[in-house]
Amino acid sequence: MPLDDFRITSGKAFQLANFDPGSKPMSGENKQADLARITQLSTELDAEQDIFYAEHRRKLLVVLQGMDTSGKDGTVRSVFRSFDPLGIRVVGFKSPSPEELARDYLWRVHLQVPKSGEIVVFNRSHYEDVLITRVHGWIDQAECERRYRQIRAFEAMLTETGTTIVKCFLHISKDEQKARLEARLADPQKHWKFDATDLAERKHWKAYMDAYEAAITATSTPECPWYIVPADSKTHRNLMVAEIMAHVFARLKPAYPPPRPELAKLKVD
Asked: Start and end of every Polyphosphate kinase-2-related domain (predicted)?
């Protein structure tokens, strides 16, 4: 099944319910084959990143969004494991600080966007400001619509100044989240990952699904598409994000800077 079926470039007719979080459209014959493919893609992506960094001209922003336990951290560890730290940066957005709250909600986000040659991965993002804020009624519908417009304009400005934006919604089911939370509770070595607020937010599952659907509908464009990544299977999730990244690099075609003929005359004593 092609990635095009999961790339959302327009909100028209988009419904999250049409995507099964338990499906494995990118998977092969078995899990071992999928893991081998992830390793292969990770190596290929590492090579592409080296060229992208050396080119030092364009910028790449990857946005990972999803419910608690959807695997944002795991995706970073699997897909971007081989990348040169010089050319990649992962940014996690928590609750805004008083300093950040004193400014517009996009201020802290703009500070973290990639510079030339850099890949930045957002673990959560500016979309929290139209998700949790909407679910809990901290902003009304009119403000939410204004923020959709502002986010579209913000992302358009980034793309027009050389940033490629790839947005992935890691789509897990409520049952799978339950299993993952229970696994954290059952294993003392995973207790550090457990947050009681996850249980409180879980009670708003339907409201979050509605908020995600509305946000994806309002902010999907050909220049800044969303990808719906079925994520009940961790292996499939990682494989699909790796395939998405391979597709992005194939389209960007990064190239090393042209050689400098004057260097041929230099000698190293």
From this structure: 30-248
Give me 10's structure tokens: 């327009």
**From residue 174, how far is each of 41, 130, 184, 187, 206 by CA, in Å?**
30, 21, 16, 20, 10
Residue 145: domain span: 3-255
Quote the pTM value: 0.94
Number of domains composing the chain:
1
The pLDDT of residue 190 is above 90: no
Give the pLDDT mean for 136-155. Answer: 98
> Could you tell me if residue 71 is inside a domain?
yes
Query: How confident is residue 82, by pLDDT bands cut at 50, 70 and 90?
Result: confident
Q: Compute the distance between CA of residue 27 and CA of residue 264 in angstroms, rounded to an integer.
A: 48
Q: Is the pLDDT of residue 143 over 70?
A: yes
Residue 47 included in any domain: yes
Residues with Cβ within 8 Å of residue 142, at least 6 apart in sequence: none
Cα(15)–Cα(19) distance, integer angstroms: 8
198 within domain boundaries: yes
Other beta carbons within 10 angstroms of residue 38's beta carbon come to 21
**260 occurs within a structural domain:** no
